[in-house]
Amino acid sequence: MGQRLDDGTREACETIDIPVRGMTCAACVRRLEKGLSAAEGVIEANVNFASERARVSYDPARTDSERLAGVIRSIGYEPVMLRSRAAGEAPGADLTDGDPETRARARDIRDLRTVLILSGVLSLLIFVGSMAMMVPGVPHFLTKPLVLLALATPVQFGAGWRFYRGAVAALRHGAADMNVLIATGTSAAYGYSAVAALAPGVFRSAGLEPATYFDSAAMIITLILLGRYLEAVAKGRASAAVRRLLELRPLTAKLVHEDGREEEIPAERVQPGNKLAVRPGERVPVDGTVLEGRSAVDESMLTGESIPVEKSPGDELIGATINLTGFMVMRAEKVGRDTALAQIVELVRQAQGRKAPVQRLA
User: Fold this and answer.
1) What is the CATH number of domain 14-83?
2) In CATH, what is the architecture of 252-343?
3) Which pLDDT band, with edges at 50, 70 and 90, does 78 fall under?
4) How far apart are CA 163 and CA 179, in angstroms?
5) For residue 336, which of 266, 280, 283, 277 has the smallest C-alpha distance?
6) Which whole number is the average pLDDT over 217-233?
7) b or e along 273-295 (b: 16 or more beta carbons within 10 Å of the residue's beta carbon)?
8) From residue 160, how far is each of 82, 231, 245 by CA, in Å?
9) How far apart are CA 291 and CA 277, in angstroms?
10) What is this structure's pTM?
11) Which end of the chain has less Cβ packing within 10 Å, N or C?
């Protein structure tokens, strides 16, 4: 999916991963991919529902991250904390510092849990009141239609409000998704039951006995919320692997000037050829080569081997590994997107975001 561009443009394209909030089903993924692929300058767009990310390859001469964010918003979804990518940052890097996305996910899970508990308690009372003939000892007042209406209304329009909001957003963009289905079905059951509770004479005048289905509407909403809560928890775990890798990145590096003076700088400002000091207990800021000093380095984050590796002048150092024993001066060789850690993160994200051919047919 995307626009046909010549080979030169494809070589100059950039790729970004944009965290997206608001997706609820596979229809959301298809709509988002279709909208992004049709946007000017987009070469390819892949949306991963499990990780809630849109991976977009685009021509920087024709569009940018802010325009892509606008496209996502116009489709009815929300990109998380967009920012410009720093120079040298990996092409699959976040448009978020990580923490905002984590906080947003944690807030969503917390809100879902609160709504689920309230909805579950009310739905249980509605279910027991509606099934009084099958459950002994139910208080008589709980079986009254007006009481059931009072219990069902917060579930329908409180806990279920997110479904109405999602349905309106989908219909506004000429599509129908799971939110439309849930809102339509539960509204039909609730509306019919509300008429039966408030105006039973309408049914009796037609020779029908009024019946309520508040339990059906409430239980559907509660069970769907339960599914979304479990899904949100699973999504958080799916992104934990990348987040743990990103936490290994050193935030600063000690730049050694020609006069021997050391200056602490942000790790993203390190350039190939810079001389960097690495003290015992510190993480190696970028990939490079030892110039001075000897030490043992813990490379278990890369190799899984717990035994430290001895390093001496001329040996290779891998960024994010831990210097254990001695002081070293190194020469930076691979920075930003070229480091081994950045390549690992990129491969993991590609694996999460890429679809098999059979998925595209589904």
Assistant:
1) 3.30.70.100
2) Distorted Sandwich (2.70)
3) confident
4) 5
5) 266
6) 93
7) ebbbbbeeebbbbbbbebeebeb
8) 29, 17, 37
9) 10
10) 0.67
11) C
Instruction: Give CA–CA dist 294/9, Å, rounded.
Output: 46
Between residues 342 and 91, the one the model is more confident about: 342
Position 360 scores a pLDDT of 52
pLDDT tens digit string along 134-144? 878 888 888 89
**Residue recorded with tokens 């790729």:** 15
Cβ count within 10 A of residue 176: 12
Whether 74 contacts 32, CB under 8 Å? no
Whole-angstrom distance, CA of residue 120 vs CA of residue 330? 59
| Average of per-residue pLDDT values in the chain | 84
Residue for token pair 């920012």: 83
In angstroms, rounded to a whole number, what is the distance separating the alpha carbons of residues 54 and 72? 9
Residue type, 118: L
**DSSP letter for each residue of 115-174:** HHHHHHHHHHHHHHHHTTTTSTT--GGGGSHHHHHHHHHHIIIIITHHHHHHHHHHHHTT
Q: CA 90, CA 85: separation in Å to the nearest integer?
A: 9
- What is the Cα–Cα distance from 137 to 114, expressed in whole angstroms? 29
All structural domains of the chain with their residue ranges:
14-83, 100-246, 252-343
Q: How many helices (H) and strands (E) does the chain have?
A: 13, 13
57-71, 73-87, 173-187: least confident range: 73-87
Mean pLDDT of 80-95: 46
DSSP letter (8 states) at residue 249: S
Identify the DSSP state of 283: B
Beta carbons of 95 and 85 less than 8 angstroms apart: yes
190 vs 213: CA distance, rounded Å: 7
Nearest to 118 by CA among 159, 163, 146: 159
Measured between alpha carbons, how far is 332 from 320 in angstroms, rounded to an integer?
Answer: 13
Could you give the angle at the alpha carbon of 33 between the alpha carbons of 337 and 233, nearest 5°?
75
Average pLDDT over residues 65-86: 76
